[in-house]
Write a structure and sequence with these properties.
The protein is built from seven helices and no strands. The chain is mainly α.
Length: about 180
């Protein structure tokens, strides 16, 4: 399968071909959503403590569970991306991110909340291998740094989206609706 602007045999971009803007936006979005659940927990933490009866200690444990799961899965994440390719890995990342966010919103208590956060470790483990491999396959070498920098900004954009806008939405819709 030939990537946009790349060759299937080498997995590298053809010289002189520029990356589509849509690719940069997709990769930035993937990075944002891969981390969104942890940023969401920080932004909505006080509401979760009240709404789910989650202790502050358990709320803090969600970070450990999320990053711990991501760290444990990351070595395998790179191998999965090598096996299935960056496109399928990005689709899986976005689907699993959506499932984790949905489970957080539907969590009736702390157990499902922790399960949802653990599930969200998978997108984190896939994010850098999938996005970096997509860049390698589709972006010419002179543009890779710029595209990589732009896609990495997705982490901060995800934090921003989970901050003020999400907190404001929670004020209007409740934390589950937000």
């Amino acid at each position: 399968m030939k990537s946009a602007g790349g060759t299937a045999a080498t997995g590298t971009a053809e010289p002189g071909h520029t990356a589509p803007r849509g690719l940069t936006a997709l990769l930035t979005t993937a990075m944002a959503f891969s981390m969104m659940q942890l940023f969401l927990l920080g932004a909505l933490g006080p509401r979760l403590v009240d709404g789910l009866g989650v202790s502050e200690t358990l709320l803090g444990l969600t970070t450990t569970v999320g990053f711990g799961t991501a760290a444990a899965l990351s070595p395998a994440g790179g191998r999965v991306v090598d096996r299935v390719g960056p496109r399928r890995a990005l689709v899986a990342l976005l689907v699993v991110s959506g499932a984790a966010l949905g489970l957080i919103g539907a969590a009736p208590g702390p157990v499902l909340l922790l399960v949802a956060v653990a599930l969200g470790g998978l997108p984190q483990a896939l994010a850098n291998p999938a996005t970096n491999k997509a860049i390698l396959a589709s972006v010419p070498a002179p543009r890779r740094g710029a595209v990589t920098g732009a896609k990495q900004s997705g982490v901060q954009l995800g934090a921003f989206a989970a901050g003020l806008p999400l907190a404001a939405a929670a004020g209007l819709l409740g934390w589950r609706g937000a």
